[in-house]
Structure formats: structure tokens, C-alpha cells
Amino acid sequence: MARFGTLLGLELKRRLRDPVSLIAWLAIPFLMVTLMVLVFGGRGRSSLPRIKILAVNHDTGILSKGLLAALDSPELAEYLDVAVLDEKEATRRMDRGHASLMVVIPKSFTRDFLDDKPLTLRVYRNPEQTILPGIGEEILAFLADTGGLLRATLLPLTREVIDFDASSRPSLEQVTALSSRIYSILDDPVAQNLLDLNALKITARHPETKKVSRSEIVGWFAPGFVALALLFMCNGQSQEIQEDLIHGRLARAWTFPSRPILPLSAKAMALVVSASLSAGLLVLALAGTLGWRPGNVAVLTIHTLAVATSFSGLSLLLRSLTRNPEAGGAAASGVMVGLGFLGGCFIPAVFLPPFLRSVALYIPTGWAVQGYLILQGSSWAGPLGTIGWRIAALAATGAASFLLAGRLMERKAVSS
Amino acid sequence: MAVLLEVRELVKRYGERIAVDHVAFTVSAGEIYGLLGPNGAGKTTTIKVLTGLLPPTSGSVRIAGFDPFAEPLKAKAQLGWVGQETSLYEDLTARENLELACALGRVPRSEVRSRVAGLLETIGLADRAGERVSRFSGGMKRRLHLAVALVHRPRVLLLDEPLVGVDPQARAHLMGLIERLAEEGHAVLLTTHDMDDAQRLSSRVGILDHGKLLAEGTVDELQARLGERDVLRLSGSFPGELPPLPEALGAETLSLREDELMLAVPNGSTALPRILGILEGEGISVERAALERPSLETLFLELTGRELRD
Known about the structure:
The complex is a heterodimer.
Chain A: H1 2-16, H2 20-39, E1 51-57, H3 62-71, H4 74-77, E2 80-84, H5 87-95, E3 101-105, H6 109-114, E4 122-125, H7 131-163, H8 172-186, H9 189-195, H10 202-205, H11 214-246, H12 249-253, H13 261-290, H14 297-320, H15 325-343, H16 354-359, H17 364-375, H18 381-415
Parallel strand pairs in A: 1-2, 1-3
Antiparallel strand pairs in A: 3-4
Helix pairs in contact in A: 1-13, 2-11, 2-13, 7-8, 7-9, 11-13, 11-14, 11-15, 11-17, 13-14, 14-15, 14-17, 14-18, 15-17, 17-18
Chain B: E1 3-14, E2 17-28, E3 32-36, H1 43-51, E4 58-63, H2 72-77, E5 79-82, H3 94-104, H4 109-122, H5 138-150, E6 156-160, H6 168-183, E7 187-192, H7 195-201, E8 204-209, E9 212-217, H8 219-224, E10 230-236, E11 252-256, E12 260-265, H9 268-281, E13 286-292, H10 296-304
Parallel strand pairs in B: 3-7, 3-8, 5-6, 6-7
Antiparallel strand pairs in B: 1-2, 1-4, 8-9, 10-12, 10-13, 11-12
């Protein structure tokens, strides 16, 4: 154990004497997270601009007015900027790209509503925009759904009122019965909700449009970039071990009266420790400057060591399969970028399509990022239980890759 | 003297190619054995088998009586290897390199400091102990490289081309060190393709080519195989075939190239003017002529038909 300690200490010294690469791998992810905070806003501002909608109303009925009032309501005004224009002016502005959507309400809109006919709205999208028209359409569709429900609920009542013949001198019982019917329908919670725009859960349907704080944005990106930093630090430092192999330093170590695993494991452990320490510095920097809350320190440390073990093992395995550091670097970078993307290191998993999100469940980078995401702002007992299997899987992957890499390197040392 | 290194009928094949072909020799305590041969002769492969890094196809080796493949730790405890490349950690100091080797060589913790200091003194680097190796000259690195192989006090030393690329001063220092190690009782196996190094250092020499040990013995024994003959080295412009020389001269063609002719003759000083006369008579111009005593190089030439540097 003392001999292992001596070797580990000297290997760590070697790494600390060349801190440039470590600092680079700390600085790059830190800058990336900072950049993401700047790009996505932060400081409590809305993350998306208001969606400009041009409305053309050919209908004079109450329903179209109600729809325009809904779009212009205080609840939606934060997200929508609605201008009611004649069709010519609206088309001119749309052609110049001044809005995201143009909505044309047909003349028979209210009549069709009352006659229980299908309702149509003509919607034109700005082809130069991708996200904002989509969100606007979603809001319109939601309002249309609401209109449909409203009709289904209120139409019988409307018909009863229309069919009520006041000129035929109805009896008191008839008037009382109709009043009672109106009150019972309007007293229904569904109808009340439909008539109350405050009940519209627009923000819940469009989470990306809510106000996002800086710490929330850091929370989206920091786990991925910490994992990414570890990935590239392990890859970069594994090059030194490959160079030790190529320049005969490992072969020479294996001619001493020690088990072959001793020098290689000391090198690998130094790699894990130095990468974990560097990741720790990155976490501190993100917490200190951008307000990231990475979670329980003890579990975070265990998770980071497991991540570094896994990534070191994988990097060494890739290095052991290639002839020289250049080929090793190219192969490892390709694999690492791929694993990083699939695991959600570059783009938070919530933004990935479902297929890629399911891939992330089965790869080490995915386990690493998920672990950091779970750890954010959680307590001691909770996260360890939740991410325990991920820590075990990461450690096991690292150990298996390391053992295989060791065997391959021994063979290479002999043949070179 | 006890035999510390023993190689018996060693064969190493890589597919169809035979790198080492039934090589056998021994090295005793206090002896420097020079394994001489051109690049690709099989010297490094032989050394790799001896270190236990490369298993042989057949045959066996013993390091101080231990088989490096059956009892690797015991064999390696008796073995110090200095490879062709100075495989030092350039970002560590000389002292740290030796401490690292001590950890690998199972040197007791209590002895590390004194052993490292002693070795630094021996190789003349005590005053540069705290300097990073990257700042060392090639000769200093070679000396430190040798010291690293000695930390665990092995009895057998395998030195693979230890003098390649070393300046004359460092070469003299290293040669002195190697001789001293042999005097202290180490068995030293030295591979080289330099005749002078082999002749100067080795008490016995083995000539290896294409994986085969062609000749073995002391330098004097090997030189005697050429008989009491001199070597004539002629420079000029020579045809592909020489004119017949009188049998009475007893001349033997060692090598013939477009620009050089080497002949072995019993009495060089008498034969030289006669041979020059015959060649001139045939219209062959000789620009320079040298009379040499036979060397290991001459023997190598006679054994293989080519020069060591070819």
C-alpha cells in the first residue's frame, strides 16, 4: 500500500506540474455555462420575445370578439402582441415579416358556433420563424379547444333561450324553469372555468415561455458541462499513459519485481483523482459565480469519483486500441463527443427527443449527467438511493474498461 | 564464477519469421558479454525474452536460476534492464525518478533515501538531484537511466545499446560505470552494433545475425579464427569481378563493392605492392590502400559476407 501511495504521489506530481491542460478543461465548460446563461437570459427576464399576431376579423358576432378579447387578455398579453387590422394591411405586414402569425376570423364564425357547424380559422405562419409561430398556433388551438367545450356546455342552453317564445305569454312556471336551468348550467364548475380566462393554464402548456432565473439555466447546463469536462479531462490525461506505453516507461516498470497492475493502477488512480479534483474546482467556480447548487457534497464527491473512474477506464481502453497518441486522440474525441451528445452533456436531456432520452439511460455519460441533475438541491438520503445504481454502474464500467485496457497495453508493450 | 544468466536453445517466431533461432549462451558473475549484430539481428528480441516481457516460442532462460515466466517476481528481483530509449519521467526530478523505481523495485522504505543518494553519487548527478530530467543532457539521462535499473540491486544487468547517441565524454563515463559494475560481480549482457564498444568492454562476444548466433568466444579467440592474416582495405573503382590473384599470395576476398575491396592476406606488407600491381595492370585504379589488423568487424564480414553497418 505504501508503494502504491508513493507511485500515486509521484504520478499526481507529474500532473500538477503541467496544469495547463487541466485549467483549459476547467475554463472551457465554465465559459460554456456562462455563455448559456447569457444566451438564455437569466436575471428574471422572460426567455422568449412576445409573439406578434395579426388578427383580421370578418365576423361581427359576439364569439369572434370574445376570441380577440381572450388573445388580448392580461394573462396572455405577456406572451402575445395582438393587432387587429383589415386583411389588406395585415397581409402587407405579414409579407414584410413583421409578425409570427396572421389569423383570419371568417364572417360566419359566431353563426357557425351557434348552428353547431365546424369552426374554421385561417392561420398564416411566418416561414422565416420556426419556434414562435408554433407556440402561437398552440395557444390558438388551446383557445379553440376551450371554445369547443364552451359550445358543448352552453349550446343547449342557448337553444333553449332562442327557442323560448316570450311573445306567447309564458307562465310563471315556464319562466322560473328556464331561469333555474340557466343558473344550474352556469353554476357548473366546468362552465365557470371556461368563462374564466384566469383558469387557462397557458404557462403549464408552454414551460419554455415562463420566466427563467439564472440559477435555473445554470441548473440545466451545469450537470452536462461538468460531466463533459470530466470526459475530456480523462481523455486528455489518458494520452500521457499512452505516451508512457509508447516511450517504454510502462514496459520498463514491468521489468521491476512488482505485479504489472501496480504501476498501471497508480497511473489510472492519479488520473481519476486529478480529474475529480479539477471537476471539484469547476463545481466551486459554478457555485461561486453563477449560483449553481450542485447538491449534497458527500454524494457529489462519490458520484464525481465514479464518473471519473468510468471515463478514465473508457479513455484508456480507447487509447489501448490505437497505435499512437494522435490516432488515440482522434478516436477518443470522436467517441467522447458522440457519448457526450447522447448522454445530454451538450444539450440538456429535456430538450432531446424521446428516443435520445431513452438512449441516455444506458450509457455512462447519461448516468453521469442524470446523477448530477438528481443531486441538484437534494438532501443526503434521497439522492444516494436514487443515483446509487448509477454510481455502481459507472464504477463497474470503469473497472472493467481499465482491466481490459491493462491487458491490451501489456500486449502492446511487448510487441512495440 | 557462478553462471547468473543462462539462455538455452532460445527460439522466438513471429508467424513465419524467426527472430531468434536456437540461441544459447551464458553470462557469469563479473563478466560482460557483448551481443554483437546489426539492426534487426535479434538482439532486442533476445533481451525482451530475458526481461520476461516476451514469452519465447521454445527454449528457456534463467536469471540467477529463476525462470522469468514461471517465477517472474523472483527473476525480476535479480534483473536490471536498460532499454535503447531513455524511458525516464522527464517531468520528475532525478531523485524522484529513482524514488519511483525504488517503489517498483520493492526497496524497503527505510533504505530509499540512502540508496537514492548513493546512486546519484555513483553516476555523478548528486548536485543535480533536484532538477527535472527534461533539463538534462543526453549523457546525463543515460547515466540516470542506468542508475534506475540498479535501485533494487539486481545481479544481472541487461544493457540494450546503452551507448547509442552519447557524446564521447559521457560514453567514457558510462563505459567506466559498466566496467565497475562487472568488477562488483554483476553479470552484464550488453547488446551493441558497435565493434569498438564490444571490443573495449566485453570479456566475451557473441555474433548474432538473422537471429542466429554465428560465433562466440573471447575477443582474442574470435580474432584467432581469422588466422594470422592482415586485412587490406582498398578504395577506388572496382568491376563486378576481380582478376585472378596468384594462389601463392593466399588472398581471400572478404567484400567487394563498387568503391571498396577488402582482402584477407597472410602477409599484408609483402602482398600489398604485388596486388596493387596486378590491379593496375588490369586497368583498375586504386585511390587509397590501408593495411589493418583483423578485428571483430572483419570476422563479422567473413561470417556474414556483409559489414555490420549494412
